[in-house]
Write a structure and sequence with these properties.
The protein is α+β, with helices and mostly antiparallel strands and 404 residues long. 29% of the residues lie in helices and 14% in strands. The strands form four sheets. Strands 2, 3, 4, 6, 11 and 13 form a six-stranded antiparallel sheet that branches. A five-stranded mixed sheet has the order 1-10-7-12-5. It binds 2-oxoglutaric acid (AKG) and fe (ii) ion. The site of 2-oxoglutaric acid has 12 residues, from strand 4, strand 6, strand 12 and strand 13.
């Protein structure tokens, strides 16, 4: 799938790094009680709805320590060799910690204004209000998320020069962040919604050579639910079959169904600034956020060669299909236009979104709902509430009314 179109053609380009920590994004304080009852109505989720952790998170008790590549950061051949061998590269303190901590404050301040944090606590502590629990797919989540999404520093950090230099060294050509940056804002003890085991290609598409960069915004010890990778799993060299999961992204793959995959998961106690880099076929998952009361805040951004194709949906703001959000909305309060619409100067071919993966997840969820699966019911209920007039929304309502 990798066309490697730009390799050797595009010469290195200097993107000047611009530091602007001006705050942006507007929120008005919602009524917490209204918000809470709305969340419960949408999700049907109550405190008592808690089950043992899903098998998929417990596939292995063994969690090994990620191999650090700081010492070979300048050695392109060694970086490529490690990426080929392990299917990931991990760096301590690659990103500017000060910038990330400022970003953390800005993001969490908006989340607190949205009712997600306990009132009167310091936003940087990320102490979650359990009554406000929500996740991707919930209207309530998108409302607050899109406030965070307007922050200029949140998008600017994707262009960090040190990271761009490293990615260009690895791929030996000009790279660019895909416009659709992503933040993950995960509530504690909401483990049903933990990001399941998957390959990124099913979500972000484009080429198999795209690189995901995952960085916590604040320290992220294991119990806060950082990312874990299945070492060497990219060597399957194809997109594996994914099934419905309630977790973020709605798709999971079962590595035990593939004998060539070893049960070797790697993770670490992440510190602010650390970055995990992996290509689109590497199998990975999040660990559950098992903390008593802390939100996990992280970034996962995708990078591609300039000139490689990009999937159409990656040109849009994240979760814009859940609730409308344009780039003009995102940029409304920015103090600089340096990183606005930056991708338009590149002529990357645009590919239509491949919908078969999520269509399959929906079909699985319909069947599971009919068979009494509560997680699938919850998934369909969300769709029915969010998109009542869409094709899937209508099917979801029909299937749900059939079981009630
Ligand atoms: O941070 C997470 O929970 C999910 C990250 C991830 O797997 C992704 O964005 O592809
Ligand atoms: Fe992923």
């Amino acid at each position: 799938m990798n066309l490697g179109m730009a390799q050797g053609i595009v010469c290195r380009q200097q993107i000047t790094f611009h530091l602007d920590l001006r705050s942006s994004g507007k929120t008005s304080r919602p009524s917490r009680h209204r918000r809470v009852s709305w969340v419960k109505r949408i999700t049907g989720f109550k405190q008592k709805y808690s089950r043992p952790l899903d098998q998929q998170y417990l596939m292995s008790g063994r969690l090994l320590e990620l191999r650090q590549s700081n010492a070979v950061q300048d050695d392109a051949a060694e970086l490529r060799q490690r990426l080929e061998e392990d299917g990931y590269l991990f760096f301590r303190r690659l990103l500017d910690r000060e910038r990330l901590l400022n970003l953390r404050w800005e993001m969490l301040t908006l989340m607190q204004a949205g009712g997600w944090l306990v009132e009167g606590t310091d936003p940087v502590d990320g102490i979650a209000n359990p009554d406000a629990r929500s996740t991707e797919g919930d209207v309530e989540y998108t409302d607050v998320y899109h406030q965070v999404y307007r922050l200029q520093p949140f998008h600017e950090i994707a262009h960090s020069r040190g990271l761009m230099d490293l990615l260009e060294r690895i791929r030996d050509c000009t790279m660019m962040p895909q416009p659709q940056n992503v933040a993950r804002l995960w509530f504690p003890k909401f483990t049903e919604h933990t990001t399941p085991i998957h390959q990124d290609f099913v979500h972000f598409q484009g080429t198999h050579d795209n690189l995901t960069c995952w960085s916590p915004v604040g320290d992220c010890p294991r119990e806060l639910g950082g990312l874990a990778v299945l070492k060497g799993s990219h060597k399957v060299d194809r997109v594996l079959e994914h099934h419905f999961s309630l977790g973020a992204g709605s798709l999971h793959v079962d590595p035990t169904a593939h004998s060539e995959l070893k049960d070797e998961w790697y993770t670490t106690d992440y510190e602010v600034g650390d970055t995990l880099i992996f290509p689109a076929l590497t199998i990975h998952k999040a660990l559950p956020n098992l903390t008593e009361d802390r939100l996990r805040v992280s970034l996962d951004n995708r990078y591609q060669r300039v000139g490689d194709p990009i999937a159409e949906h990656m040109l849009n703001p994240h979760l814009g299909s859940m609730s409308p959000l344009t780039w003009d909305d995102v940029y409304e309060d920015w103090g600089s236009d340096e990183f606005q619409y930056y991708w338009k100067k590149h002529d990357n071919p645009v590919l239509p979104k491949i919908t078969k993966y999520l269509d399959k997840a929906f079909e699985d969820a319909v069947e599971l709902t009919r068979n009494g699966d509560e997680r699938a019911q919850l998934h369909l209920r969300r769709i029915a509430i969010r998109d009542p007039t869409s094709d899937q929304g209508k099917v979801a309502s029909e299937v749900l009314s059939g079981i009630e």
